[in-house]
User: Fold this.
Amino acid sequence: MLDKLNTTTDYLKNIGFKDAHIGIILGTGLGGLVNHLDIEYSIEYKDIPHFPEATVESHSGSLIYGKLEGKQVIVMSGRFHYYEGYSMEEVTFPIRVMKMLGVRTLLVSNAAGGINPDYKPASLMILDDHINMIPANPLVGKNYSKLGPRFVDMSEPYDGKLIKKMEDIAMRLNIHVNKGVYVSWIGPSLETRAEYRFIKIMGADVVGMSTVPEVIVANHMGIKVAAISVVTDLCDPDNLVPVKIEDLLNNAAIAEKDLIVLFSELVKEL
Ligand code: HPA
Assistant:
């Protein structure tokens, strides 16, 4: 893995990805932030050595180097999901590469189903904590002490100071955000009514199929994380209607405007 990481990092440095302290992951239906970037270099995942190839249609799949609010950022437009058949190592490989390119703070977005009955579709939730229900962990296997410790502390997976900054920005700009717990579900089938009941009892506010693997690896490598879920649909087990992917993408597009403002303002302050 160390060799692969070095090859990929050297390749990206050679094409111009120099030092960037901030990394951003854009989730499903949330690629619009790209239009706010001064893009310097953009490369498709399939052209990056050792990167897995994106398979889901709604993910454009490229790594972008540029400026947001005058700050140098590396943006993943589209991510890799465990349900696509990638290994946990593959899903989280780009996070390790970002760290080697200088990233110290990672901003993560995702689309998620709302479990908390107070949440509305097309609203935002800051992640305060998570529960990993994907039956795997990216840190299983040999630990490379150069990359991080064997046993990673997870008492504060999402940085408290970054959370506070986002809450202050939201308050100042009159953007409504909730704060809660994200549970990662393996997917790709959506959850049953009984599973939604279980997820609620477990203490989660939203459910999605990503984010947790990347956040675990970011913590392993000492990267500070802030993450936001866009609530795309309501998962009420007693009034469950079949999910339409168009509706999810529609709601993602509505909430994305506020997400872009929050991330942009946060980047300004970093
Ligand atoms: N489950 C339910 N609804 C969702 C999800 C999910 O994983 N992601 C987005 N909406």
